[in-house]
Amino acid sequence: MSMSAVYILDVKGKVLISRNYRGDLEMSVIEKFFPLVLDCEDEGNASPIIIHESATFTYIKHHNLYVVATTKKNANVALIFSFLHKLVKVFMEYFKEMEEESIRDNFVIIYELMDELMDFGYPQFTESKILQEYITQEGHKLEVAPRPPEALTNAVSWRGQGIKYRKNEVFLDVIESVNLLVNSNGNVLQSEIVGAVKLRCYLSGMPELRLGLNDKILFENTGRGKSKAVELEDVKFNQCVRLSRFDNDRTISFIPPDGEFELMSYRLNTHVKPLIWIESVIERHSHSRVEYMIKAKSQFKRRSTANNVEIQIPVPGDADSPKFKTTVGTVKYAPETNVIVWNIKSFPGGKEFLMRAHFGLPSVEAEESQGNPPIKVKFEIPYFTVSGIQVRYLKIIEKSGYQALPWVRYITQNGDYQLRTT
User: Fold this and answer.
1) Do residues 185 and 252 share a domain?
2) Comparing C-alpha atoms, which of 419, 421, 418 is closest to residue 371?
3) Predicted confidence (pLDDT) per residue in 277-307, tens digit
4) Are 102 and 178 part of one and the same domain?
5) Looking at the structure, do residues 290 and 362 belong to the same domain, yes or no?
6) What's the confidence (pLDDT) of residue 144?
7) 65 and 177 share one domain
8) How far is CA 214 from CA 43, 47, 223, 389, in A?
């Protein structure tokens, strides 16, 4: 179940840093890794797990780096992937960016972190907020050598002792991203909602929080099946949540980490009515010009408003002499990406706006590209969730009995939101 070694490689497969945890595999086995990756990619069957003789390579790619774990035995591959992603997250929180330069500049502290994150091939402690209490980027004098915080040996390893705030507050954000794909006939081919509940906790002591949502299973169990409820799928919780309590009575109970963290994520594979609908009429006049008429319509309630709407309309690579006319917002041509960008700062619900664009085309027509790229839309709608999820309560319990203010905010935004054109 354990890992033999962990390596970080550059884009050419050269080892930047490595740590041997068990000594049961030769460290030189990594020389086999990069040629095997290239072979798999050339054959079109790239895999994050590669087996070669007695070694198994499990890896993730982050920007231009490979983060690789080697194992000799049959290992828990889900645990390995989870550890590699956590390793990247810790390095990002320490160095802001994880790239070749930051690895080379910080190799001493990286070795310290790798020794804390794993022991003899078994993941140990991966909470960067606690690690930062005793592995710092400043040197320590011998007479004031740091002591590991008590959280390392606590049942609550993600929260330090003795946290104090003058004003106790919790900020809770429910953020939903809408993924949508619409074909050129206006039919929705694919739609889903990906949600996250994010918290910023500024609370003294060791508080316990309880969060109640309009969860369909809970409502059915308590005889409120007809109430407006949401059926959440693929729910993933932060390690602080008591899973046994959730399994028993659907209560989300937890002692929170200090500061900012993601409490849970979820997905709803449901039919979503497009929040911002785009109709496009494109008239191509061979060898002379192309004209666009774009209609944008907000299909949500009038009391809501979408902010910072950006509509990206693809245009031919050889277009020139752009002219625009719009009833609202600003339009600009981005020739480096071959798109028109229509920005609407504030888009109220139930409204419809029009934009016209005109481009000249050179006398020699460029080769017809294979299909037209889709129109992409970006937006953010505050105080609104497309799924209908609601925070029913957020209770804060702490032995000193202080009063804390919970603040709840809802945001719906675009995910991968595309509408194909003819």
Assistant:
1) yes
2) 421
3) 999 998 888 778 889 999 999 999 999 999 9
4) no
5) yes
6) 44
7) no
8) 48, 40, 13, 6
- Whole-number Å distance between alpha carbons of 102 and 104: 5
What is the predicted pLDDT for the residue at 363?
Answer: 56
| Cβ 25 vs Cβ 54: under 8 Å | yes
208 inside domain: yes
| Residue of 49, 113, 46 lying closest to 76 (CA atoms) | 49
Spatial CB neighbours of 124, under 8 Å, sequence gap ≥ 6: 116, 117, 118
Range of the domain at 252: 169-272+386-419
- How do residues 94-150 score in pLDDT, each as one tens digit? 888 899 999 988 988 999 999 989 988 888 878 777 777 777 765 443 344 455 555
3-state secondary structure (DSSP) of residue 71 = strand
Measured between alpha carbons, how far is 70 from 20 in angstroms, rounded to an integer? 10
Nearest Cα neighbor of 377 from 327, 297, 309 is 309
125 and 230 share one domain: no
Q: Do 267 and 410 belong to one domain?
A: yes
What's at 274, amino acid-wise?
P
Nearest to 175 by CA among 196, 200, 199: 196
- Closest-CA residue to 64 (of 36, 94, 33, 102): 102
Distance of CA 252 to the CA centre of its chain: 22
| 355: β partners | 294, 326
With cut-offs at 50, 70 and 90, classify the pLDDT of residue 394.
very high
Tokens of 329: 């917002």
